Amino acid sequence: MSFYSLKMRASKNSQHVSGAEKILHEQELPAQMNALLSRALHHAKGQADFINMKIETVRPDDLEYINALPVSSIMVNTPEEGQEVILQYLSKLGIKNGTEIMKRFADTYTMRGAILLDINDLSRLEPDFGRGIRATYMDAEHSLDRLPDSCKNHFQEAIVLASKVVAAPHIIAEICISDDPDYVTGYIAAKNIGYVRISKLKNMGCPNGGRIFLYQGPKQDVDKCINYLEKQRVLVCHVPYFPNEKSIMPINYIQQMEKYLQNKKELHLYRQTREITSAQSAHVIYQGRRMLMLASNNYLGLSNNTVVKESAEQAIKKYGCGSGGSRLTTGTLSLHNQLECALAKFKNTEAALLFNTGYMANLGIISAICQKGWIIYSDELNHASIIDGCRLSSARIVIYNHNNMDSLEAKLREFAPCHGLIVTDAVFSMDGDIASLPQIMSLSHKYNVLTMVDEAHATGVIGPNGKGICEYYKMEKKPDILMGTLSKSLGSEGGYVCGCKILIDYLRNTARSYIFSTSQSPAALAAALTALDILVNHPGIVKKLQKNVQCFCETLRINGISANSDSAIVPIKIGDEAKTIRIEKELFQQNIFLTAIRYPTVAKGAAILRAAVMATHTEAEIQLAAKKISAAINL
Ligand SMILES: *Cc1c(COP(=O)(O)O)cnc(C)c1O
């Protein structure tokens, strides 16, 4: 039976588009040629305008059969860790100058072929430095009944190549870093370590890659080695089709984690929980001390409100503790439906849908709505749950400068026309400032994209009656998607989305965090229902909160600290992480509970003290706290 070598090279405007080589049986030739031709003519990089196919006969006697190298994979987190793995393997192979060898990759970036490097004196052995050595005339051995490949299997091709390279005389290893900007993987291959795929050897988007063949032998044998690499016809047997992600390098996971934590501590970015032994009110008990709480999102004090608590108790008595199922199976109680109605009415929309938390709401909503091909325009300071929701969707994420309408419009113009969503916090969770919603709405209208607003810190806080951002701006028209949480001013737990009936029905059928999680418990539902009722019927508590905020800011300003807010969040800018921690500790000594916000919640070197005022604070408490804060900063 005769074999043929088939090589295809396709280019467009003299730029390489696609290439392939195969060793085939005669009866496979037409179909495989057709498949390669079709690949070149329908390539993602563009339709080739020059296609070269070369067919040569291969005498069975000239064909060498070798076994594929055993394959293993190592997952690493950074290119540095990846390089470290290579150095370890080189040292296992008895190669001491690994670091020097890795530096030689800089020479490969412009080459199509590989460097042939003598590991003893690090001299380059290839006759043409510009071209390098091209390992060629090889394929995976296969049965006659294979189907023509419609696309490249990069993994398989790499194993075939590596197996041939390390079979060449005097080659002791090959190291490869992909030169495709979209692939960050690479490998090291050697006879006794096999083919070790490394998950990260460079950063995404980096076009630099290449190959180095490591040679250890007499100089007079170099020609024999090159001849094997470039001329010997080779079929590689038992090539696996998919990479398996089994790690063979023992890495000490716990030690890695410890290293990470140690680093955090050194940078003053290490975080711990603090145990409170009382209810979350204007004052809390912490380490046995009564402290003024200036860090709670329970802005209206409703989480510890007597009426709210009683309604939760009643709900437990009637419905029990857990809901027993997800909403679409057995987990819809009348309380869920009542709360959805009440929320829709409060936000003046057609319908509403509950989620277990605000975080889950953002994940579920954004990933259900934004499909592949969509553009999400997201404010750079949006809450982490919005960011995670965007990541979970298959849309492209475009970040615009914080609340900057010129930046937003520039991005909208860049991608128009498109299917898109503008998403923003209503009140930004760290700085307490308010999104420019009227302008966002008119831009969304102009560019025909959806708008979504996260009212976590707006509901119960801004607008004369605490109805949120639309009331604050006295807007008639609403954003398409209004989401929020029940866990902040409403003092309970849960997330929600308000909008038109069709949107809500769509989300009920598609949002995975809604569908695949047990629904909220009766106590949380009843508490939120009662809290909402109090908010609607006693808007005076919102006015009290707003008055407290103004009193707090004013006292800070009188004492030389710049402070300003239209929400309940008052950011006090400090900057340096260590200094911020010192002030936080100092205030703790004085029984003021306030949190330092650091990277990654805010940018590095932009640490703040985030004060959150409550409606249940007295004016005297607030003024005293403001004075103590100012004194601690100036200490
Ligand atoms: C707190 C918060 C959330 C998450 O809400 P949870 O109910 O706590 O999960 C979402 N978005 C913003 C802006 C928030 O501040």
Explain what this protein looks like in three dimensions.
By secondary structure, the protein is α/β, with parallel strands linked by helices. The strands form 6 sheets. Strands 15-21-20-19-18-16-17 form a 7-stranded mixed β-sheet, sandwiched between helices. The protein has a 6-stranded mixed β-sheet with strand order 5-10-9-8-11-6, sandwiched between helices. α9 (358-369) runs parallel beside α10 (384-392). The radius of gyration is 32 Å and the shape is elongated. It starts with a strand and ends with a helix. The mean pLDDT is 93. Pyridoxal-5'-phosphate binds next to α9.
Helices, strands, pairings?
Blueprint: E1 3-12, E2 15-25, H1 29-41, E3 50-58, E4 63-67, E5 71-74, H2 79-92, H3 98-103, E6 115-118, E7 138-140, H4 154-167, E8 171-177, E9 186-190, E10 194-198, E11 210-215, H5 222-231, E12 233-237, H6 253-266, E13 283-286, E14 289-293, H7 306-319, H8 334-347, E15 351-355, H9 358-369, E16 375-379, H10 384-392, E17 396-400, H11 405-415, E18 420-425, H12 437-446, E19 450-454, H13 469-472, E20 481-485, E21 495-499, H14 501-510, H15 512-515, H16 522-537, H17 540-558, E22 569-575, H18 577-589, E23 592-593, E24 595-597, E25 607-612, H19 619-633
Parallel strand pairs: 4-12, 5-10, 6-11, 7-12, 14-23, 16-17, 16-18, 18-19, 19-20
Antiparallel strand pairs: 1-2, 1-3, 8-9, 8-11, 9-10, 13-14, 15-21, 20-21, 22-25, 24-25
The chain binds pyridoxal-5'-phosphate.
Pyridoxal-5'-phosphate binds near residues 358, 429 and 454.
